[in-house]
Write a structure and sequence with these properties.
Order of helices and strands: EHHEEEEHHH
Number of helices: 5
Distance between the termini: 16 Å
Shape: globular
Oligomer: single chain
Radius of gyration: 14 Å
Strand content: 15-25%
Helix content: 40-55%
Number of strands: 5
Length: about 150
């Protein structure tokens, strides 16, 4: 399954209400829960937190890809959060993060997980797309931008 197939309005939060890393993780897992994509909020949050505390998933140029693996999901799940104001996410370049792509996969399905991470990395290389996503005015605009890529 391609990452783009997971992009639906219900998994996008614009703008994020969070102001720090722990709250971003909670808010994005909450998006998955509210969208009916996961049942066990605590197990998914724990998996993402454990991965994040090993090493920050804050990349460069305002992008973070928090992710984790847990038996609480049977297939790859994605939540997208946009923080126009930027949030300190301990990114590699030390700059605030605007775009968050939370990925959660099953431990026995590493292929889709790795493929999705690679797709996000490819998207992240497009500064024009990233700026357009960060400046998006509504969720539908985010869906259209992601699907046009």
């Amino acid at each position: 399954m391609a990452l783009i197939d997971l992009v639906v309005p219900e998994i996008i939060k614009l703008p994020l209400e969070s102001r720090d890393k722990p709250d971003v993780l909670r808010e994005l897992v909450g998006v998955l829960k509210d969208a009916g994509k996961i049942q066990d909020f605590d197990a998914v949050l724990k998996a993402v937190q454990e991965r994040e505390y090993k090493q920050s998933t804050g990349l460069e140029e305002g992008i973070a890809v928090p992710h984790g693996k847990t038996t609480a999901v049977s297939s790859l799940q994605l939540a997208i959060g946009i923080a126009p104001q930027g949030i300190d996410f301990n990114s590699l370049d030390g700059k605030p993060t605007n775009l968050f792509f939370l990925l959660v996969g099953s431990p026995d399905q590493s292929g889709p997980h790795v493929q999705a991470l690679a797709e996000v990395a490819r998207l992240a290389r497009s500064k024009v797309l990233c700026r357009a996503l960060a400046d998006a005015e509504n969720v539908q605009q985010v869906v259209e931008l992601m699907k046009s890529e």
